[in-house]
Write a structure and sequence with these properties.
CATH class of chain A: Alpha Beta
Radius of gyration of chain A: 19 Å
Number of domains of chain A: 1
Largest sheet of chain A: 6 strands, mixed
Shape of chain A: globular
Strand content of chain A: 15-25%
CATH superfamily of chain B: ABC transporter involved in vitamin B12 uptake, BtuC
Oligomer: heterotrimer
Strand order of the largest sheet of chain A: 5-6-7-3-8-9
CATH topology of chain A: Rossmann fold
Strand content of chain B: under 5%
Number of helices of chain B: 12
Number of domains of chain B: 1
Order of helices and strands of chain B: HHHHHHHHHHHH
Number of strands of chain B: 0
Chains: A alpha/beta (268), B mainly alpha (308), C mainly alpha (401)
Structural class of chain B: mainly alpha
Number of strands of chain A: 9
Shape of chain B: globular
Order of helices and strands of chain A: HHEEEHEHEHHHHEHEHEEHHH
Number of helices of chain A: 13
Chain lengths: 268, 308, 401
């Protein structure tokens, strides 16, 4: 029995070594109180891919990301970043948190937020030089927010706030970009701007992982899918993994069959 | 001559008041932005038990053991608050209230139980300080500032609070970026490898040191006004953290100077002979400044949706 | 002596104060429960510190009107008015400016207190103030209390308690679920105001016994204690009232036995003792219970993860997992399964597969909701249902793709 099951449960991942991929998570379990929200999850992110982490509400998508980044403490599990421990490879990671996770009433300007992405470069007391500001402006340019550089962050719309966060991540100059619900509650123009930036990153050879909630755009935006509902449900290219069978496994009764049919499924 | 009298009687309390106010306002800015303003409340209440225990252990009323005792009490309080919050899953406000009232009660009880009547250690003094008594009797005028013999007679509180102010300013300057980033976006700060928990604890310890140093002069309750009022008023004046800090320092100085002057000379103008509590007046002035900024401050209202 | 005190045998005044304190303790415990559940415990800190200028002004006013200024009802009235103004300032600052509630509370409590100190220093220089003893309001003092004052406290305590009992239902409703309460026609704002008003009443009545700095403890510690023992609002209010009453009674009685035992601190420390016991030994939410549960839980998680890894012949990266498996005789040191381990692993994997089907099938939705990676499938499904699922899996040799 065990033999058959091995082939069934994603045998292809076993060949990959931690050093072959930007991000590898093994046996990750996170629980709030006595209830695991992520249970024994293995995630393998391929080089130069755009991976969507999808699953129903409360399925542990954001928690998995945060645990992989060490923001929440897992009960068990290891994270490898480019085959190394997280601590050694932090400089290669850029993170875009959920918009709602910060206080937008904080007294600071857009440009200051982007400069926060350069803090590692600046160190404790390094002076902000013209070159740093130019870099921050260039990042704002890429997300179409250059005109807002001197605005107070509280004055921005939701979409604009999200773009500022993305600009800050760009400023980090990382190889692996992890985004937590970058498209949640943003306008169409912002969504387009963000996805163009992300596709640009991929074209540059970077790797992108995003927690995503809109099933209708998965196939259009991403090339790989990681499906989670406390456990890993499926993982692979959009064609392999984004199937109606897997979707009904992940969403159970929460996603009516009719809805699944409407999705632009690559392989059914 | 007026200079003589001023240097001897008013210069040192004025400087001590100003230094205390600034030393408290600097960390206060971050406490207010982190919605931890009441940590200042908790710290200032546990200074009393810290001092009492230090006195019991050393048997003398000396500055350094007391400062160490008070700082240790603050750390104990913060650890206990975290422990109650995490272990008991109790909301932070209630955990704070529980810890600092208990420690304060223990301090008062121990104080009553031990015979401290022979030494200068009483609860009222601990609560509202005695700024007016910190005079410089050896001063004969401005030239005393360059006279080593006279300088050695300076009240020891002055160099202490000056050193504290320098340390607090250095801390704020050196750790400006980690403080700002971890206050604004803790999760992001963690992904950059910043030890956010440690930064938070360091901020609390710095605040505690400032509170302890200021405690001599203004007592434990009014320290809270210095932690909260100038930064809160400054927040209503600007939307930029750098400028907020500058405003808070300005407000702290104005509160201290105006409060001291009003306490000392206000009653005279009203025809009374006796001065009122300078520390109390400083708190009152800082409250008036906050009220004015709350009514007229250019950035007094929220821009976006109310943060919860 | 202590026995006499607890049994109210220490004279008329001490008895009145003890009874008043006990009533007050119960009222504070119940009122504090609602403050705590509304997450506004520290608002009481602003209320209590804001009483000081009222005490001072009332004293000055009474002296100006020719009285001696020490009439307790007058002072308490003054304290209530200034506490009310302090409360209004807190809510105004929170609503009208961008300041958060904690900053508003801190600002109000320190500024009002500072102003109160200014007034006290003025009173000290007034001729009538020499023996005013207003400092007693800072830390409470029941020594040398007049008979009338003791009566005021006993009656005040009883009245506050009566009010709390009267208002407990709507307050409980609002504290538990404000939106539902609003939807069912309760005026939430007014009830919130009533909770604050009661907290103020407790503060004012307790001022003379406990003092304004420690009265907060009577409103905060008992509800926190009660939270450990129950999850129900009404039980919590009851337990909190009991804790509050008990600690106030013990505290007031004990402090009557010796001069160096100030009432306020003794009450607070008694209350804290109850809390400490609850924190560690409460059956469900207590620390000991939680630690044991967490350890067991962590073991279960590691064990199960280890079994699944064994079943799929994956490497085990976590040392703790491997240690558990080895200790249970399920794996060798190199991470290879023993015979027993293989059997257990197969069962774990099979259960996973069963769960997968259950969770994908709408017919099992309620069972699927219980999935957390650890729950044994036998605990949510009947043998028949499991057999049915096994049939769908197709048995050990069946097609699995």
């Amino acid at each position: 029995m065990t033999i058959e099951l091995i082939t069934e449960q994603g045998a292809s991942q076993i060949d990959l070594k931690p050093e072959d991929c930007p991000l590898m998570v093994r046996g990750m379990t996170v629980s709030y109180g006595q209830k695991p929200v992520v249970f024994s999850v293995d995630l393998t992110v391929h080089q130069e891919s755009m991976t969507a982490i999808i699953g129903p509400n409360g399925a542990g998508k954001s928690t998995l990301l945060k645990a992989a980044l060490g923001i929440v403490k897992p009960l068990a599990g290891r994270t490898f970043v480019y085959g190394n421990s997280l601590a050694k490879q932090r400089h290669r990671i850029a993170y875009v948190p959920q918009r709602a996770s910060v206080d937008w009433d904080f007294p600071t300007r857009v440009i200051d937020v982007v400069l926060m992405g350069l803090y590692r470069e600046l160190g404790l007391l390094g002076r902000v030089r013209k070159s740093h500001e130019a870099k921050a402006i260039a990042c704002l340019e890429r997300v179409g927010m250059v005109d807002f550089a001197d605005r107070q962050i509280g004055q921005l719309s939701g979409g604009q706030q999200q773009r500022v966060f993305l600009a800050r991540a760009l400023a980090q100059g990382a190889d692996l970009y992890l985004l937590d619900e970058p498209f949640a509650g943003v306008d169409a123009a912002t969504e387009k701007a963000i996805i163009n930036v992300l596709k640009g990153l991929k074209a540059e050879g970077k790797t992108v992982v995003a927690v995503h909630h809109d099933l209708t755009t998965v196939a259009e935006y991403f090339d790989r899918v990681f499906m989670i509902n406390t456990r890993k449900i499926a993982e692979g290219s959009v064609e392999e993994a984004f199937t109606s069978e897997n979707l009904s496994k992940a969403y159970g009764g929460r996603l009516a069959t009719g809805q699944i049919d409407q999705l632009d499924l690559a392989a059914v | 001559m007026i200079g003589e009298e001023f240097v001897a009687l008013s210069l040192t309390p004025l400087l001590i008041g100003v230094f205390s106010a600034i030393a408290c306002a600097l960390p206060g800015n971050f406490l207010v932005l982190r919605k931890q303003a009441l940590i200042g409340d908790a710290i200032s209440h546990v200074v009393l038990p810290g001092i009492v225990v230090a006195f019991l252990l050393t048997g003398v009323v000396a500055a350094w053991p007391m400062m160490i005792g008070a700082a240790a009490a603050s750390v104990v309080a913060v650890v206990l608050i975290e422990a109650v919050r995490r272990l008991g899953r109790i909301e932070p406000g209630a955990a704070m209230g529980l810890v600092f009232t208990t420690m304060f009660a223990a301090g008062v009880l121990v104080l009553e139980q031990t015979d401290t009547s022979s030494v200068h250690l009483d609860v009222e003094h601990a609560l509202y300080g005695n700024l007016e008594s910190l005079i410089w009797l050896d001063a004969m005028g401005w030239h005393s500032l360059f006279d080593p013999a006279a300088l050695s007679g300076l009240p020891s509180e002055l160099p202490r609070i000056a050193i504290t102010l320098i340390c607090v300013s250095l801390f704020t300057w050196v750790f400006w970026r980690p403080l700002k980033l971890s206050t604004f976006d803790e999760g992001f700060a963690q992904t950059m490898g910043l030890p956010t928990g440690l930064i938070g604890l360091a901020l609390v310890i710095v605040a505690a040191v400032a509170a302890v140093a200021a405690f001599d002069a203004v007592g434990s309750i009014i320290v809270i006004a210095m932690f909260i009022c100038p930064p809160a008023a400054a927040r209503l004046m600007t939307n930029q953290l750098e400028r907020q800090i500058a405003w808070s320092v300005l407000f702290a100085i104005v509160s201290a100077v105006l409060g001291y002057v009003l306490a000392g000379y206000g009653p005279l103008w009203l025809g009374s002979q006796n001065a009122v509590s300078a520390a109390g007046m400083i708190a009152t002035v800082s409250g008036v400044i906050l009220a004015l900024t709350a009514i007229f401050g250019p950035c007094r209202t929220r821009l976006g949706a109310p943060s919860t | 002596m202590i026995r006499d005190a607890l049994l109210l045998q220490l004279g008329y005044n001490a008895t009145l104060v003890t009874i008043g304190a006990t009533f007050l303790g119960v009222a504070a415990g119940v009122t504090g429960t609602f403050l705590f559940l509304r997450k506004r415990a520290l608002v009481s800190d602003a209320i209590s510190h804001a009483t000081l200028p009222g005490v001072g002004l009332a004293f000055m006013l009474m002296v100006a009107l020719g009285g001696d200024g020490r009439s307790l009802p007058g002072l308490l009235l003054g304290s209530a008015i200034s506490a009310g103004i302090g409360l209004l300032c807190v809510s105004w600052l929170t609503r009208r400016t961008r300041l958060a509630e904690d900053a508003a509370i801190g600002a109000v409590l320190s500024v009002f207190f500072g102003f109160g100190i200014v007034l006290l220093t003025i009173i000290q220089t007034m001729s009538a103030g020499r023996a005013a003893g207003l400092e007693g309001f800072l830390l409470g003092s029941t020594a040398g209390m007049l008979r009338n004052d003791a009566l005021v406290i006993a009656v005040g305590g009883a009245l506050t308690l009566a009010l709390v009992v009267l208002l407990r239902r709507p307050m409980g409703l609002v504290a538990f679920d404000a939106e539902f309460a609003a939807a069912s026609g309760v005026n939430v704002q007014r009830i919130d105001l009533a909770i604050m008003g009661l907290a103020m009443a407790v503060t004012v009545v307790g001022l003379k016994i406990v003092g304004l700095i420690l009265i907060v403890a009577m409103l905060i510690i008992p509800p926190v204690t009660a939270r450990f023992w129950t999850d129900r609002t009404d039980h919590m209010a009851l337990i909190s009232g009991l804790c509050g009453g008990l600690s106030a009674w013990v505290g007031a009685a004990l402090s009557a036995t010796a001069p160096a035992l100030p009432t306020g601190p003794v009450i607070v420390l008694a209350s804290f003792a109850l809390f400490a016991v609850s924190l560690f030994f409460a059956p469900n939410r207590g620390v000991m219970a939680a630690v044991l549960r967490q350890l067991r839980f962590q073991r279960r998680v590691h064990m199960r993860q280890g079994l699944l890894a064994l079943a799929q012949s994956q490497p085990i990266y976590e040392r703790f997992t491997l240690k558990l498996l080895r200790r249970a005789g399920l794996a060798h040191a190199d991470g290879v399964a023993t015979t027993a381990g293989r059997a257990r692993a197969a069962k774990a994997l099979r259960d996973e597969k069963r769960w997968e089907l259950v969770r994908a099938d709408q017919a099992f939705e309620s069972a699927a909701a219980l999935y957390d990676g650890l729950r044994e499938i036998e605990t949510v499904l009947t043998q028949d249902q499991i057999a049915e699922i096994d049939q769908r899996i197709g048995g050990p040799k069946g097609a699995l793709v």
